[in-house]
Amino acid sequence: MFNHLLSLLIWLPIAGAVPVLLAGSGRPNTARWLALLMAILTFVISLFLIPQYNPDVTGMQLVESHLWIEALNVHYSLGVDGISVALILLTTFVGILVIVGAWEVIQDKPHQYMAAMLVLEGLMIGVFCATDALLFYVFFEAMLIPMFILIGIWGGPRRVYATLKFFIYTFLGSIFMLIGLIYLYLKAGTFDLHTLATLPLTMQEQSWLFFAFLIAFAVKVPMVPVHTWLPDAHVEAPTGGSVVLAAVMLKIGGYGFLRFSLPIVPDASMHFAWLVILLSLIAVVYIGYVALVQEDMKKLVAYSSVAHMGFVTLGIFIAFMLVREQGNTDAARLGMQGAMVQMISHGFVSGAMFSCIGVLYDRLHTRSIKDYGGVINVMPWFGFFYVLFAMANCGLPGTSGFVGEFMVILASFSANPWIALFAAFTLIIGAAYTLWLVKRVLWGDITNPHVAEMKDINGREVLVLGAFAALVLAVGIWPQPLTHLMDSSVAQLVQVLAVHKV
Amino acid sequence: MVTLPLILLAIPSLFVGMFTVKPMLFGGWFGGAVHVNEANDVLGEIGKEFDGSLAMALHGFTQLPFFLVLAALVITTYIYLFNPAVADKIKSALKPFWTILDRRYWVDDIYFAIFARGGVALGRMFWKGGDAAVIDGVLIDGSASTIQRIASGVRRLQSGYLYHYAFAMILGLILLLGGYWLIGQ
User: Fold this and answer.
1) In chain B, which residue's Cα lies nearest the Cα of A226?
2) In a domain, A14, yes or no
3) Total domains in the fold of chain A
4) Is residue A317 part of a domain?
5) Using beta carbons and an 8 Å cutoff, which residues of A are at the interface with B?
6) Burial A19-35 (b: 16+ CB within 10 A, else e)
7) How far apart are the first and last CA of chain A?
8) What is the ipTM of this complex?
9) Using CB atoms within 10 A as the burial measure, which of A278, A497, B72, B162 is most buried?
């Protein structure tokens, strides 16, 4: 079984979607319980990764490889390093919570909703396992389909606009990646990522490839200025869709940089690192201000996600400056490690924030901030969780939000204090938009009579928010297990940065 | 509600200070963790004179700061408890100073106007001007509507009339053959 652990993780939820779908709209509870069972089973199996994966050894582990398309030398090859393991665990964990979170909320065709979620989960795990570029691409694109369905069917009033925008945006980006991959295939005769990483490429080739990858992953992350699909997608998506989108799908952009841009085109990545760093800082400052004035809670958190993901790209590309210009591998590792912790932490925090907004939306059917106010008077337990996640969103020490941001700021300070200054700006502006949101939603007097009728969170919601809260605090207080899991992989990546191909 | 915890905290802090002031301020309590420049070693100077926490506390009652506090206590007690009219007289006599202090030098107002209001205005400008107008308006929806305009124009070429298509074919044939002929020349 363990030789095929990764395959099992990918295909179990996808195969599990079939009986869920077959349960049909006539037996919604059967579908729900089946979906939950599949999600829990996937999570439990993913836990086997922890004893199976040896964090002290570099390179891909739990490797599987079969010839898939002989004519093109495409392999169905899977493998994980510490970063993938962390992201897979995040995916399977969030997978359970979105199904629990949707339990009574999704009344329309719940079996199809649950099935789409399971398929999405399997495909996302596939993205994190694939070590063949074409296989990666297939999972990367296939992921759009269940997400398209989730937003398009269970979405809000402008769901058609949002889904098309989301789809065309991401698709346009990934087409460039496909062109890049085809070029690489013609040169190397394989899609194997490890071989591509050692393929010699001229600076000109690298530059073109770098931008092909950049467009694909920048849309996914998303980076300024290709981020505008995200607020729309989030606003229209059902709560579960938003949670998965923010918690896992955005991470695939950051993960793509690690798997493609860094090892395959290191010199071009170094050459254009300033561009990515600049865009990341714009994301932090500019998007921070945009988030401040949002009137829709989901849009606010969506914009805050863009700002937080700016830290991920900053941490990844600051490492180039540190390694190549200063030879400071320790700081580079710190920055890269910070970026990875930020990815995981943002998974928890944004997932939790969107779940909180879902809780409010289920009661009042509006996401507009001005419709709330004084919620703490009727929902004290909800308020407790909301404030905790808001604090984590600001990056308060003791929560997971602090760890990654602090590491990235420290690393950028070694590279250039000015970069650190702009990056640290997020601490102020992030606190401003998050605390102002909390102030307007939770505190004050109840002005809307419907707010007075709101009921505090039920057991199911406590379960979801409590699980998120536990992890936010766990990573915030004791990040060492997480950093240890990823440490050797990060160290290896930092070594890759120093390799010149031209 | 917070009175009791404060009292409970005050009692032990008194004793903690009494028994640990020497090692904490003048001894090696913190090891080398706190470094003080030789020239700025105020605590070191005090340490030379230090002879027990009780003596230090009693010494405080013989110094000017204590008498100033005492004087302030007497004056304010007199004014606010026995003769409030004095306060009003001082207020009207020193009105400008009173206003400056009462408004805390307007620092909060200035900060609110610049950082809070300015931040919101900046954010709105970025949102409406940058995200909504330029990125979404021009680039995203703009390119979509441009394509739609082009497509709806080009669509008219497909009229559905057979003779239009036949005519287009003849025209194409003439152009193609003409092209060949020209190249042949």
Assistant:
1) B135
2) no
3) 1
4) yes
5) 165, 169, 225, 228, 286, 289-294, 429, 432
6) bbbebeeeebeebbbbb
7) 43
8) 0.82
9) A497
> Which domain, by its residues, includes A448?
282-502
Chain B residue numbers touching A228 (CB-CB < 8 A): 131, 135-136, 140
Task: Give the H/E segment covering residue A358.
Answer: helix A329-364
Q: What are phi and psi of B115, to 5 degrees?
A: -80, -45
Q: What is the spatial distance between Cα A395 and Cα A346, in angstroms, rounded to a whole number?
A: 10
b/e for B108-140, b at 16 or more Cβ within 10 A? eeeeeeeeeeebeebbeebbeebbeeebbeeeb
In this complex, is the C-beta atom of B118 within 8 Å of any C-beta atom belonging to chain A?
Answer: no
* Residue type at position A476: G
Q: Are A165 and A229 in contact (CB under 8 A)?
A: yes
**Counting runs of H as helices and runs of E as strands, what totals does chain B give?**
10, 0
pLDDT in tens, chain B (185 residues): 788 999 999 999 988 888 888 888 887 777 777 777 888 888 888 888 888 888 888 888 899 999 999 999 999 999 999 888 888 898 899 999 999 999 999 999 999 999 889 999 999 999 998 888 888 888 888 888 899 999 998 888 888 888 888 998 999 999 999 999 988 87
Domains of chain B: which residue ranges? 3-29+41-105, 108-184
Q: Is residue A64 part of a domain?
A: no
Q: Which helix (H) or strand (E) holds A146?
A: helix A144-154
Structure tokens at A19: 């009986």
Q: Both tokens of residue A501?
A: 């191909």
Distances (CA, A) of B99 to A455, B21, B92, B128: 47, 42, 10, 40
- Å from A374 to nearest chain B CA? 22
Task: Show the DSSP H helices in A400-453 as ranges.
Answer: 400-415, 417-441, 449-452
Buried b (16+ CB within 10 A) or exposed e, A113-143: bbbbbbbbbbbbbbbbbbbbbbbbbbbbbbb
- Dist CA A189 CA A186 (whole Å): 6
Which are the contacts of B49, defined by CB distance < 8 A and separation ≥ 6?
A: none
Does A135 map to a domain? Answer: no
Cβ <8 Å between A289 and B126: yes
